[in-house]
Structure formats: C-alpha cells, structure tokens
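Bench log. Compound arrived from synthesis this morning; before running ITC I wanted a structural hypothesis for how pyridoxal-5'-phosphate sits in the protein. Inputs:
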Amino acid sequence: MKRIMIAEPIFNGNEKKYLDECIETGWVSASGRFIHEFEAAFAEYCGVKHALSCSNGTVSLHLIMLALGIQPGDEIIMPALTYIATANAVRYCGGTPVFIDSEESTYNMDPDKIEAAITPRTKAIMPVHLYGLPADMERIVKIADERHLVVIEDAAEAHGSMIHGKKAGSFGKAASFSFFGNKIITCGEGGIVTTDDEDLYAYMLQLKTQGVDRQKRYWHNMVGYNYRMTNMQAAVGLGQLENIEWHLQQRERVAGLYKEYLSDCENIRMQAEPDGYHHAYWMNTVILDDFVKLTRDDVMRQMEEEYDIEMRPLFYPMHIMPPYYDSSVSCPVAERLANRGICLPSHGYLSEEDVAYICTAFKAIVSRSVK
Ligand SMILES: *Cc1c(COP(=O)(O)O)cnc(C)c1O
C-alpha cells in the first residue's frame, strides 16, 4: 500500500482550464478576471458583502490588524491553541496576543474565560475555528457587543463550516481564510478577508496595493504593502470554489468513516460537535486518554514506521513556544489537548479501505499500549 498522506489537494474542476487561460492571455499577475470572480463568488458563498483576496492567510490576518489600527499596547484575545499565524499577525503590529484556554470538548476558545481577560487595552476578540469546527460565535459575539469589542474570525481552517446555517466568515467585523495547499480548498498559497464593512474593505484594499490612490496612478497615500493575490492563484481558487460542496461532502464522508471505525476504540475521544454546528472537517483528530501509556509522539512514530501513515500533532499552545513564551499563562486544557492530540489523515481522496486501514493500525498500537 502506498504512503497515506495527512492532506492532499484535489483538482477535479476547472482549475487547469482557468490556469491555462491566464498563461495564454498573459494575465498572470495581480490583474485579471479571476481575481474579481473569485472574490465575488467567495463573498456570496459566505453571505457577506466583500471579499478581499491577498497572498496568503497570514497577511489576510495582518491586513485586518492594520485596518483596525492595532498598535503597541493593544491587546487581542485569542485561543492559546491555534496556528502561530494568528498570534504573529498581532505581533507584526506590535500588539499583544492574550491567550485563552480551550473548551475540553470542542478544543475551541472557551467563552467562559474571555471576560476575565478583558482589560482597558483590549481591542478585539479573535476566535479560531479550530480544525474546521466553528468556535462558539453566538456567545463570543454577545460578550464582544456588551464590552464594545470587535470580533475577528480566523477562519483559515473552516471554509463552509456553519452554526445554525450561518457560515464561518460572516459572524465578526471581518474574517480571514487561507488557501494553503493543505486547506479545505486551495490556491497553492492564498488568503481572503471577508467583511460587510465598506470602509474597512476600502482601507484594506489600499493597504494591500502599496497604498496607491484609487484614482491617481502611482500616487501613494500611505506606506502600504504588496499583499496581492495573482490571477493564477485566483484561477485555481475559483475552480476549487465552484466544487466546494463536493470537497466538503468528501470530508464529511471521511469523518463519518472515522467515527464509525473508531467507535469501538475506548481510549480516545474526538472533537465534540455541538448541536446545530456544521464541522468542515479540515482535520479529524483524536485525543489519547491516560490509559494509553505511549506518548503521543510514540503513537505517531509507530503509525509512520510500521504502517507508512503520515500523522501530525495538534498545534502546540502559543505560550509554550519561544516567540510567545509566558510561564504566567495558565491554559491547562489547551496544554493537555496539545500533549495528547493527533491529527489523522484528512482529505477527500481517502477511501473506506484507507480509513479502515488507518483505524485498524491505530487501534492495534493503542491497545497494545494500554495492556
Ligand atoms: C493556515 C492557517 C493560517 C495561515 O494561513 P497561510 O495561508 O498558511 O498563511 C492562519 N491561521 C490558522 C488557524 C491556520 O490554520
């Protein structure tokens, strides 16, 4: 059997045709029809007024932070358990990420812990929809409204996820998505900001295009950035987006198979899905319980070495890594989840046979470690 990868992009729509058009017409850079079509289609998909494409899902977060005017001393509340880009975007502006612990069951930012973290310097709350499961946006938005704070979604992993039919990317003042090669849909590299706010959108558009004036060419109003997406990226992205329901269905199918094949595995648990929440299943994850004597890394190594199955650890919490190290931060749930959590291969090419093979291997390793 060939190596089973944790993630694989699937291009089975118009991606190649659109990409060919870019090369044949010469529109390979930051102008061209695909950029506008991709942005319009993505905004419509999320149910928002505007979508602003950019080079990747880290700069989309940076653009939002810049547009909010985040400065040294400003605090942004975010989960400790996330990918490092969430925190970095704040730090690029000199701001301070304030880390919140996870809910045990969903791994997402625990709304009960937010109030205590709010200070006069807090500017925004930035939940992350971890591994494709939306954070508790109803409660987070309510807290933010009461305290006059802005909500920014890091939806990099959660295209198409929903709470009671409302899409990720439509809950806050703005949201950021990534189209990296392993994400739910991809442009190779790419990012997008969604927002209903006209002024924020216009300002971010200037920021991402070197601060150039909209009317007067080569007249620059500010120190901007070159954070543009290319027409080639957008061509691939549009081809992917046209098929997003298919991509999500495949992920749901794979997640259903994991639930079935791991239902008899007593020493693990999986990410809980609250009622009305629609998981996008970017990653299927398992948390090992204390009866499993092997470390998480040993389980992953044995899966790799004995079965040629690629595994991935959950993210490390931000406050234990060098750039954000802070021994005064207490996030015991995030630390425990990170310490015992594994991401399983999660992509639309996995067949039932593949998932059965992965689960059989996994259960064999876990059960011999429990005995
Ligand atoms: C992937 C990811 C990003 C960054 O996206 P890139 O496109 O890789 O820059 C940001 N936040 C989270 C939570 C992510 O998973």
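What the model suggests: The chain has a mean pLDDT of 97. Residues 352-370 form the longest helix (19 residues).
ITC booked for Thursday regardless.
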